[in-house]
């Protein structure tokens, strides 16, 4: 059985808005939390944050009356807000379209007026040379990356860890040899010979 997917933030916001639209009434936060938890499947602990987000987005109105805060929202206002947002997006599109046309015009004019003068050719040649030098220096820098203090420090840490690990294994081998000698009376040299352990096998300094 697949695990039930939790509600997304947008779904929670929509369900909170449905509480206002369906009931067309004024609510205190505790009332919204109760309805959202009981009827909309939203944890009451997150309702306050969601409602505040809707207030910040001008989708829900709020007013303090006496010692209590009341919240409300009506479909008519939501429709007006959506229309205003849509109009704003349309205006943005129109503005960007005008900019696009102007830029295309400027590019076209630049192409027609630009001529290959000796100075421009020289500048382009100099630019190409500098780009080539930059690539060469980047490759050279990569070769000396190992000299970077951070890289060296990391290598030293890894070396230390490897050194400690090697000595732990050495200690384990000596412990096993000692156990075999006591348990079976086998000489250490015989164990070394059978298992290919060098005569100078010892801890790393």
From TrEMBL:
The keyword Nucleus applies. Its main location: nucleus. One of its GO terms (cellular component) is nucleus. Required for proper homologous chromosome pairing and efficient cross-over and intragenic recombination during meiosis. PANTHER family: MEIOTIC NUCLEAR DIVISION PROTEIN 1 HOMOLOG. Belongs to the MND1 family. This is Meiotic nuclear division protein 1 homolog. It comes from Paramuricea clavata.
């Amino acid at each position: 059985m697949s695990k039930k997917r939790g509600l997304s933030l947008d779904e929670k916001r929509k369900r909170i808005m449905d509480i206002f639209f369906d009931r067309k009434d004024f609510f205190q936060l505790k009332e919204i939390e109760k309805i959202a938890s009981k009827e909309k499947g939203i944890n009451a602990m997150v309702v306050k944050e969601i409602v505040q987000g809707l207030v910040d987005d001008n989708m829900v109105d709020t007013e303090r009356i006496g010692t209590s805060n009341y919240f409300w929202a009506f479909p008519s206002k939501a429709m007006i807000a959506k229309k205003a947002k849509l109009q704003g997006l349309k205006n943005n599109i129109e503005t960007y379209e005008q900019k696009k046309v102007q830029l295309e015009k400027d590019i076209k004019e630049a192409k027609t007026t630009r001529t290959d003068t000796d100075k421009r050719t020289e500048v382009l040649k100099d630019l190409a040379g500098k780009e080539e030098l930059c690539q060469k220096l980047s490759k050279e820098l990569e070769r000396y990356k190992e000299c970077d203090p951070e890289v060296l420090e990391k290598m030293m840490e890894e070396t230390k860890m490897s050194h400690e690990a090697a000595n732990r294994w050495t200690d384990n081998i000596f412990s096993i040899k000692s156990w075999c000698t006591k348990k079976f009376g086998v000489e250490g040299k015989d164990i070394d010979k059978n298992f290919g352990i060098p005569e100078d096998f010892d801890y790393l300094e």
